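Before the break, one more example. Copy the sequence into your notebook; we will annotate it together after we see the structure.
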Amino acid sequence: MCTQMFRATLLALGGVVALVVSSSAQAGSTLDEVKARGTLVAGVRYDSPPFGYLDPSGKVVGFDIDLISDIAKRLGVGIELVQVTAKTRIPMIESGKIDVIAAVLTHTRERDRVIDFSISYLLDGQRLLVKKGSDIRGVGDLKGKTVSAVQGSYNEGIIRKLAPEAKILVFQEYPQAFLALKQGLADAFTTTATILEGISKKDPDFESVGELLTSEPIAFGMRENDSKWRDAINFALQDMVADGTYKTFFKKYLTLPYHAPETWPP
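Here is what the structure looks like once it is written out:
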């Protein structure tokens, strides 16, 4: 009797495993879905110059936009750009509403527990933006000050750790966080140095100060356990580096010393 029950249990477990394997196989890769659809749906920022922002005509443009649009072209599909925020981008990739996050996404260990990442295509870092003439010259001057940041961003968590005696105001988007500084509601605004540089170029009354507070690898984000899709993104990005397209985009939007993403032989 016990032997029969054991065999029955094994058969039942085998059926469950087979069902799981079958379901996974049927699910396929995001690459297959994108190819079948004919369109890559990318989550991008509309408020993060030079990565993703609205030009005077209202069209979303930027470094991330050019990169992911070129990847779609290399895959032989069209591109659909969907606006995301720091708070919504990971839930949207998890729920399948977008195929990839191309939205100045810092690759962190915490995020890597829930989504996968491409190779890093840019190394950035966090700084402070202040009004020219401010007595704030670095993170050590933030005691008793108010700092604006974007909710759900990596930078929000960092500034809370580095300036525990500062008051942190959080906003959904970068323009709101910068406006708080501009209106005097905040003494400083913090995010990645490249974004702050883009803001100060448009409004020279403000400047970035202090050393980099972090070293932030920026990468594309995608759903977990889809190596076929991750490889497709990585290979397209590396092809971009090899033929000079990546450098063209880099020089178009950034003033950092040029450095290419990681590459390996074809």
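The longest helix spans residues 2-27. The longest strand covers residues 100-106. Try to locate both features in your own notes.
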